[in-house]
Design a protein that fits this description.
Four Helix Bundle (Hemerythrin (Met), subunit A), about 80% helix
Length: about 170
């Protein structure tokens, strides 16, 4: 995870580019695997798990960087973004385990990757003087992931009510 090391060292533009590159490669390897017929259920599971680790590790490195500079609020927002991101993934996985498709919501993985990438590339004023979008990106991620988790909970609630009503009418 080169992006993590680059964030810790304070090279935000390079970290952003590494994160973008890694995310694009991750998307392509999964698609290639499925298209070639070489994909396995375990491969899909592992890919998804590693995606969560990558996102969490990058956000943790960003939190470390903020904390190291004495910026407690953006560091705490990183923790909220990690938790929110995990909840977005968990709510989908749990819903699907219950038989409910759950791809609803604003802060899907591609959206989170874009927001985080913009924050990293345009963070710390490295690319454009006096422009630091990293805190704004982190606050946005924290808010949108919490909102998306809520959207998914609401969606699953509504879908399960329909299923339960149908089951009750069959009796």
């Amino acid at each position: 995870m080169p992006a993590v090391i680059l964030v810790i060292e304070g090279y935000f533009v390079l970290a952003g580019l590494a994160f973008i590159f890694g995310s694009v490669m991750d998307t392509l390897d999964g698609r290639y695997s499925r298209m070639s017929g070489n994909g396995t259920m375990f491969g899909a599971f592992l890919d998804s798990t590693l995606d969560r680790i990558e996102e969490g590790a990058v956000l943790t490195a960003i939190a470390f960087n903020f904390a190291d500079r004495g910026e407690a609020v953006p560091a705490a927002a990183c923790v909220a973004a990690v938790l929110g991101s995990l909840m977005v993934s968990y709510t989908r996985a749990r819903a699907e385990a219950l038989g409910v498709e759950c791809k609803v919501g604003i802060a899907t993985r591609p959206v989170r990757v874009v927001i985080l990438s913009i924050g990293l590339v345009f963070g710390a004023g490295d690319l454009i003087s006096d422009v630091d979008l990293l805190p704004a990106a982190i606050y946005t991620m924290a808010g949108l992931t919490a909102f998306t988790a809520g959207q998914r909970v609401w969606h699953v609630r509504n879908e399960l009510k329909v299923v339960e009503a149908a089951e009750a009418s069959e009796v």
